[in-house]
Write a structure and sequence with these properties.
It is a single chain. With 146 residues, this protein is an alpha/beta fold. The protein is built from 5 helices and 5 strands. A 5-stranded parallel beta sheet has the order 2-1-3-4-5, with helices on one face. The model has no long low-confidence stretch (mean pLDDT 97). The structure holds ligand CA2. The site of ligand CA2 has 16 residues, from loops.
């Protein structure tokens, strides 16, 4: 089983700024924690980050035949991108929309997600732990273990 983890714009800055909102861990540490969980579960995990909306759309579009599930923190594009929503809807693989912070406790413009309606599940506000939980839940779902 193969899972794709995509992190969107500015998440390469994790651990370098805004520790009060996003914590002190780096993107490399976050990916490492997810790789460890993937190893425990016996699944293959590919981790990518991009600041470019079109690159994220291309990666999502290339999922069919290559990945079974998607973990997606589209960051600010969550609140703006019809293109990413259409890409997720088009590939029809179970997708978890991820956020480190609780987007509903922040600025009003973060309360709207273009992705939630096409995602299988949404996880927000649990920091790095949310990624690990989402990976476990997505794999269980794909294995029909619910
Ligand atoms: O909580 C999340 O994971 C977000 O997707 C993060 C986005 C934000 O626009 C969403 O509303 C919620 C921002 C990612 C920027 O990450 C940074 C990390 C460290 C320092 C500065 C930015």
């Amino acid at each position: 089983m193969r899972i794709l983890l995509l992190n969107g714009p500015n998440l390469q800055l994790l651990g370098m700024r805004e520790p009060g909102i996003y914590g002190t861990g780096t993107l490399q540490e976050l990916e490492g924690r997810c790789r460890k969980v993937a190893g425990e579960l016996g699944v293959e995990l590919q981790c990518r980050q991009s600041n470019w909306e079109g690159e994220l759309v291309d990666w999502i579009g290339a999922i069919p035949g290559n990945f079974d599930g998607l973990l997606l923190n589209a960051a600010a594009y969550t609140h703006t991108s019809v293109a990413i929503r259409d890409a997720v809807a088009g590939v029809r693989v179970p997708t978890v929309e991820l956020h480190l912070s609780n987007i509903f406790g922040r600025d009003e413009f973060r309360h709207r997600s273009y992705l939630a309606g096409v995602a299988w599940a949404v996880v927000a506000g649990m920091g790095f732990q949310g990624y690990e939980l989402a990976l476990r839940a997505l794999v269980a779902h794909l294995r029909g273990e619910e």
